[in-house]
Write a structure and sequence with these properties.
The chain has helices spanning about 1-20, 95-100, 105-120, 125-130, 130-145, 165-245, 250-270, 280-305, 310-320; strands spanning about 20-25, 25-35, 35-40, 45, 55-60, 65-75, 80-90, 150-165. It is α+β, with helices and mostly antiparallel strands and about 325 residues long. A hairpin with a 2-residue loop joins strand 2 and strand 3. The protein is rod-shaped, with a radius of gyration of 60 Å.
């Protein structure tokens, strides 16, 4: 009886473990009845029919990372590159992943390798090295569509490493150096160009300011000559009026003026070594006296004429004796 009871206890324990199943979080178990899939067990405790149902596949429902082995790929321009990558997958349908493909991870890795050769082989080396995002997007679209019947969702595909041949790497280094030197020369030339433009602009502004200065000076000189001519005209008019009235002192004024100017030029000439003093100094003194009398007459006439403005009198006095040329 003791041996029989021990056997019954063992059978009860086996029956208990085969009936009660606890599924951990992040896993799903498939249930098979006489080898045929019937249902999928979610995380938690579940009960099976003893000796009839059993656990088929234990599927990992969490996101997984698979390595894509390194392989050599020939690009469109016949360059050999070594490329590898990683793929992130997640099982969405446990039954499809368990029964529609034999080895899920191996199948996905092979699928990634073949599509990676296809995508990289359709691009030139420069595009492969500079457009990794484009390669990742194309691979993700193709592989996700291919794994959908297996109940798998491909979340991301990343190219982990791209290694071109050594000679191509050296050529690329020389090309990069030459490109940087070209940019440096262009930048230096642009700087010199901007400096030349700035200097030319400064010279232009300076020339404009100088021209404006000359213009203003010429305008002021013309204005001075105009005022001098007006003064001379007023003086000539006064002398002409005096001559018309029969005053000989007005004629003496012009004679004395020319006489003094000629004598001054003779005295200051650099070729003149001897100063000639005129013998008839009395005539010169008389002419000067006549000029003084003419000026006094003009002053008396201004005082006797009450309608003459103060400014006009001043102008007349200034114009009566024109400046010596």
């Amino acid at each position: 009886m003791g041996y029989f009871g021990l056997v019954l206890l063992v059978l009860a324990i086996v029956l208990l473990f085969s009936t009660i199943k606890i599924v951990p979080q992040g896993r799903e178990f498939t249930v098979e009845r006489f080898g045929k899939y019937t249902r999928t067990l979610s995380p938690g405790i579940s009960f099976l029919t003893p000796f009839v149902e059993g656990i088929g596949r234990r599927m990992n429902m969490m996101e997984q990372v698979l390595d894509v082995p390194t392989q050599e790929v020939i690009t469109k321009d016949n360059a050999m590159v070594k490329v590898d990558g990683i793929v992130f997958i997640q099982v969405m349908d446990a039954a499809a992943a368990a029964y529609r493909v034999d080895d899920l991870n191996y199948a996905i890795a092979q699928l990634c390798m073949t599509n990676l050769r296809t995508v990289v082989g359709s691009m030139e080396l420069d595009e492969v090295l500079s457009q990794r995002d484009s390669i990742n997007t194309r691979l993700l679209h193709v592989i996700d569509a291919a794994t959908e019947p297996w109940g798998v969702k491909v979340n991301r595909i990343e190219i982990k490493d791209l290694t071109p041949p050594t000679d191509i790497t050296n050529a690329m280094a020389r090309q990069m150096k030459a490109e940087r030197e070209r940019r440096a020369v262009i930048t230096e030339a642009d700087g010199e160009k901007q400096a030349a433009i700035a200097r030319a602009e400064g010279a232009k502004q300076s020339a404009i300011l100088q021209a404006e200065g000359r213009k203003e000076a010429a305008f002021r000189d013309a204005e001075a000559r105009e005022r001098e001519a007006e003064a001379e005209a007023r003086a000539t008019a006064m002398v002409s009026e005096a001559i018309a009235r029969g005053d000989v002192n007005a004629i003496n004024y012009f004679v004395a003026q020319k006489y003094v100017e000629a004598f001054a030029q003779l005295a200051t000439s650099p070729q003149q070594k001897t100063v000639i003093v005129p013998a008839d100094l009395a005539s010169l003194v008389g002419s000067i006296a006549g000029v003084g009398e003419l000026v006094n007459m003009a002053k008396d006439q201004q005082r006797n004429d009450p309608g003459t403005p103060r400014g006009g009198g001043t102008a007349a006095r200034r114009g009566s004796v024109p400046p010596t040329a």
